[in-house]
Structures are given as C-alpha cells and as structure tokens.
Amino acid sequence: MKSKIIAIALLFLFAITLFGCAQAEQTTTDNDNTTAQAEPKEVITWKVQGFTPAGTLYDDWGKHLANLITELSGGRLVIEWYPSGAIVPAFEAPAAVRDGILDAEFGYSGIWAGIKFAAPLFTATPGLFSDARDMLMWLWHGGGMELWSEMVADYNVVVFPAGLIDSEIFMWSNEPLRTLEDLKGKKLRMMPLMGKILEEKGYSVVFLPGGEIIPSLERGVIDAAEYSIPAFDITLGFQDVAKYYHFPAIHQPSGVQEFVINKDKWNALPDDLKRIVEYATQINLLYTWTQQGALNIKALEEFEKMGLEKVVMEEEAVKEMMRWIDEWFAEKSKEDPFLARVRESQIEFAKWWFPYKQSMMLPYPDWALEE
User: Fold this and answer.
1) CB atoms within 10 A of CB 84
2) Which of 30, 208, 211, 348 has the highest CB neighbour count under 10 A?
3) 45 φ, ψ to 5°?
C-alpha cells in the first residue's frame, strides 16, 4: 500500500514538473513574440520621379502608384514622390535610375529614344494597337516584356508596365489640318517614331519636352503639336492656345507607361516586397486605364463648350500615313536588328490576336452613336 502511494505521488510530481516546463516554454515563446512585435521592421525608402509637372494627370497617377506601394507594404517600402524636374530633367531620368540618383522613375519609354532607337515601341507603335488592351496583351502574352527587359538589361534597371492610355489627340493647331497638304510648311511637334517618319517625308518636325510645348505654340515657334490624351492635354492648357484638335491619333493609338527601378535596389528587396511592387503596378494599370476613359470624355465635353473644333483627318491622308509607317519600319529594320525583332514580334502577335479579337466584337447599337 505504501509503495502504491509513493508511486502515485511520484507520478503527480512528474506531471506538475511537465506542466511547469510547458508553462515556462510558453512564457518564453510569448516573450519572444512580444519582443519580435515590438522590434520595428526595417523601412526602405525610395526616391521616385515622374515625367510630367506637378498637378498634371500623369503626376497624379505616379503618386497613386507610390501611395499604393507604401500602403500595400504596410509602410515597409516608402516611396518619396517627386514631379518631373524636381531631381533631374525628365529626359535624364533613365540615367539617373541607372546611376542610383533616383531609385525608380515613372515615365514612358519614349524618353529612352536617345539610348535605344526602338525604345518608343514599348510605349506606342504608330498605326498599331488602337486599344490599350492590345498593347498590354502583346507585352504579357506576345513576347513584348521579354524584349523590353532585354533592352534595359545592360542599363542596370528592371521595368514594369504601370499605366495605360487610350488614343491621343493627333494634333493641336490654329488651322484645321485635314490633308497631308495641310501639314506641309507647318512646324510640327511630334514624338518619335512618327516624327521621324514625317521628317523623312519632308515635313518639319521638332521634339520638345512637355513643358515647352504650350509656350512654343503661343509664341508661334511651332504651328501644331501633339502630346497626349484629352484628359492630360486639358491640364497642360492646349485648349487655351489652339482652336482645333485632330483625330485619329495615327502616331499613338494607345499607350503604356512604365515603372523603371534600379536593379541593385530591386535585388535588395525581400521577395514579398518585390511581389507587392509588381502587384501595385498591375493595380495601377487598371486604375489608369479606366479613369482616363471617363476623364477623356469630360475633357472633350469641355472643349466643345469652349467652342473648339474637332477635325477628323481625311481617310486618304490616314491611309497614306499608314503606308508610310509600314515602309519606314521595313527600311529601318534592315539597319537596326533590335528594332527588326520588336517589329516582327508585334506583327506576329497581331496575326495571332487580332482575328480572335475581331471575332468577339459586336457593332455598337445605332442609338448609342446618335448625335
């Protein structure tokens, strides 16, 4: 009997000991967790610059992306936003990102034209991709991103599409420009590559930064100019210096904006923050694409109220410029192997994608198009 009591006592003592150890371990774990929670997480700060002045639509879009990244990362990756020119001039942004002066830039690949001749094709292609979805499909499912990444690889950066726009306005002027003859003798502000195409056909073309266009139109330094979509052009003030705006936007039927990041800064990010940056750019694509459609309509309504006139270029002029575009690409592709690869990629994608897309389309109802 005595031995049984001792055995029970020892068993009870052993159970208490186990419970005490477990409690001590739990307390230690809780203390560790409390300490971990109390320790501040590392905060990474990036300097990011846009490509348009403060207060413009594209500056707002860049800030939207910056805020998205900061918010989605829980404040672990903070984006300090700067408008165009705050740190470096807009066209020096690629070099500034490469050299670490900027950690990233929100812009468009046209500003890379002085570095790589084919660069503007990752923003827009003259005469092609009349829907921004077409452009994004080429990038994501037609080999475009692989080519774009290859183009910037030696520049110590990585790139993501980060904004989408619809068709731009072809030209602003104080004279209607309906035919190719109407364009002759005029000094035109036009982005590459369409500017090169027109120039080689004998037209007078200059390429000015956005901030110089309005003063140049106002002073008569140039006779006509394009820059962007109606929703953006209205923020620059084109409607105050020009009476006529023209369609269709042969030079840029749709467009993509970019988020370019210094590769060393990118590689230093933890994997989860890399995913957050990528997801934020994708959210910004949808945000910009849907918002700009509504804002474009609002801007066009405002132009109409102001008594401005919309001019649709004659069909023959449009067809002729489309022919010039094809001829120009065929000729330049012989001189520039990378341009040739990009053009071939876009052609092959168009042959794959356009028949499918066209088969899915319904005509718009007549009542929706009534004036």
Assistant:
1) 26
2) 208
3) -120, 130
**CA 123 to each of CA 108, 138, 249, 357: distance values in angstroms, whole numbers, following the listed order:** 6, 12, 14, 21
In eight-state DSSP terms, residue 104 is E
pLDDT band at 209 (very low <50, low <70, confident <90, very high): confident
| Cα–Cα dist 343/313, whole Å | 26
CB 108 within 8 A of CB 123: yes
Contact 83/54 with Cβ under 8 angstroms? yes
Helices (DSSP H) in the chain: which residue ranges? 2-38, 57-72, 93-98, 132-141, 144-153, 180-183, 194-200, 210-219, 230-236, 263-268, 271-305, 315-335, 337-360, 366-369
Give 197-206 pLDDT, tens digit per residue.
999 999 999 9
Q: Hey, what are 189's tokens?
A: 């502000």
Question: How far apart (Å, rounded) are the C-alpha atoms in residues 247 and 167?
Answer: 9
* CA pair distance 90, 85, nearest whole angstrom: 6
The amino acid occupying position 316 is E
DSSP SS3 for 326: helix
Q: Where are the domains of the chain?
A: 44-165+254-294
Question: Which CATH superfamily, name and number, covers 44-165+254-294?
Answer: Bacterial extracellular solute-binding protein, family 7 (3.40.190.170)
Q: Are 293 and 230 in contact (CB under 8 A)?
A: no
